[in-house]
Design goal:
single chain, mainly alpha, Four Helix Bundle (Hemerythrin (Met), subunit A), 7 helices, disordered C terminus, translocase, transmembrane
Length: 251
Amino acid sequence: MEGRATASTPAALPYYVAFSQLLGLTLVAMTGAWLGLYRGGIAWESHLQFNVHPLCMAIGLIFLQGDALLVYRVFRNEAKRTTKVLHGLLHVFALIIALVGLVAVFDYHRKKGYADLYSLHSWCGILVFVLYFVQWLVGFSFFLFPGVSFSLRSRYRASHIFFGATIFLLSVGTALLGLKEALLFKLGAKYSLFEPEGVLGNVLGLLLACFGGVVLYILTRPDWKRPPQAEEQALSMDFKTLTEGDSPGSQ
């Protein structure tokens, strides 16, 4: 809107965001290359159904979840409501894609007669998915659903941010566990002989760790937080004055 004051973007922030996207897209592309070169590709109605799982998790619970967390750093001057909706939609897409990955692996195990939920990776994976769904549901209820008081949102905001970052970290750790498990199951003792698939898998693991690290670095820089806009502060002040009779604290 014309005449509206805009917050300046920190000089280094765009470079870190661009680097995170380069890492994330390379991670997704390399996951696809690994599955295509060494695991036969992807198909739903065949023995390749299992391969849907790692690709969906890389896209959903790693790349899209990371991008959803960065929304409030990238879109610094857009309307808060618009930014909230984009943040929530990216999480919805991530959740749906992750659900497809879960269905793929359980359906594959059922068809092959394999046991479910016996490994540390599978336990962590279910924990992450449940926490992610609950986090989205509670976040939607507090921040997008009308009728929640300003004070309640303010009290919950810090917990929402903490659990969002924690779930993202758990997602990266769980993906690393799954990658190692997949390499050891297929390569066995040959893993220590620097087999090409093992080397590619190790590089993929480093990309996972680096993407997670860069996203968390961007999130934890206090000077890179999205500053509250003047109209947001005025609306918050008016709302809290009307409902509670005092002024809101800083967000």
